[in-house]
Amino acid sequence: MLHLHSLTRCRALLPSIQLRRVFFSTGASASSSVATASPDPHFLVEYLVNTCGFTADDASKVSKSRPRFRSAEKADAVLGFLKSQGLDGANLRKLITWMPKLFGWDVETNLAPKFKFLRDMGFSESDAVNAIMLHPAILSLSIQKTLLPKLKFWESLFGSKEILLKNLRKGNRFISNSIENVVRPNLNFLRDECGIPEERVSLAIKKHPSFIVLNPDTFRALVDRADGLGVPRGSRMFLWILYVLHAVSREKFEAQVKLMNSFGWSNSDFITAIKKYPQFLGLSIELLQRKMEFLVKDVGIAPSDIAYHPTPLGLSLEKRLIPRFRVMEILKSEGLWTSRNKIHGFLSSSGPKFLQKYVLPYQDMHPKLLEVLSCDV
Predict the structure, then answer these.
(1) N or C end of the chain, less CB within 10 A?
(2) Which of 276, 192, 261 is nearest to 229 (CA)?
């Protein structure tokens, strides 16, 4: 497996003459007629509108964070290089909005090495652009002093370069957080004070690294929230509950409790459902209400049964729950539905298993069963 330390072997950067050729071929130097030094406070606004397609209002907002911008020549070089790497249009405007200091950077020393680094990691041009848009901090970090050590650490934590790259391709913004001041304290807290085995922590972080980069005080408060629900720290669901809770505000949580109480859940039912399937907390109040109304009023499931078998709450209403309910109605109308059929298993089973058990045996008699399931299989 190719490891990150192999990336320290650097090839020569594009010579200056090649870079200039790339820049001018992009057409980004259209503003070269503008003076390279100007005290005009509207200089950057005009530049962003004329060369990047900003609206005047958006350009004005960006200009406030870059008041000393005066060099159109350097900006042309930066824009030309970014466009040559596949950044343009809305993505380019977003990046400039996030990091207007880009216009003060040197292409050969600040920007080109970062894109080369990403390519050496195994990213395609489009992957590199995606990584920059998801993790813009990459552009501002020193490769040798900061970026490479960070990525080595995360590769070790994830267990492989492939999982590292997978998470870099996602929106999990973990690169900009301090290892020593944030990540290690949280890891030590889970290990030393919560008693959670490292392999279990590693498994959770591989899928959801975002919760481990919370401020340590916020992280401890999150653990307190889970403790308050009566979830044992030794439970295998504990880390998944932490991940879900960190994305759910206290206000939303309280609104969900109130909603489920209106369907007949006790607070104990609510906690039972969280312990079994915490992902349902990620649903909007509106969607959670629609699913409960369907399951209780249309399908006829007792609310307490949903609390003990909450997985259907995570299934698509239009693509899974409604089509399978229609299949159930057909089976019932023909006397083919028995009391042995567990409704939560009926709704939650995988597509192939569902077909094998509930559709294929009756396909000749009821060819419409497959048509009903067109969204589900």
Answers:
(1) N
(2) 276
- Percent of the chain beyond pLDDT 70? 86
Residue type, 239: L
User: Do residues 306 and 313 lie in contact, with contact meaning Cβ atoms separated by under 8 Å?
Assistant: yes
Distance CA(202)–CA(85), nearest Å, equals: 34
Q: How many CB atoms lie within 10 A of CB 141?
A: 18
DSSP one-letter code for 10: P
- Residue-wise pLDDT for 36-71, tens only, equals 444 455 788 888 999 999 999 998 898 887 767 666
The one-letter amino acid at 77: A
Residue 160 dihedral angles phi and psi, to the nearest 5°: -165, 160
272 burial type by CB count under 10 A (0-12 exposed, 13-18 middle, 19+ buried): middle
Tokens of residue 281, six digits: 């907390």
159 φ/ψ sector (left φ>0, alpha ψ -120 to 50, else beta): left
Handedness of CA 159, 160, 161, 165 (dihedral sign): negative
Q: Residue 238 in contact with residue 196, Cβ under 8 Å?
A: yes
pTM summary value = 0.71
DSSP annotation of 11 reads P
Count H helices and E strands in the chain, helices first.
21, 0
- The answer, yes or no, to whether residue 17 has pLDDT greater than 80, is no
Q: Say how far apart CA 279 and CA 311 lie, in whole Å.
A: 9
φ/ψ of residue 135, rounded to 5: -135, 65
Confidence band for 375, pLDDT divided at 50, 70 and 90: low
Contact criterion met (CB below 8 Å) for 150 and 141 = yes
Summary mean pLDDT of the chain: 84
Helical pair 285-293 and 250-262, crossing angle rounded to 10 deg: 20
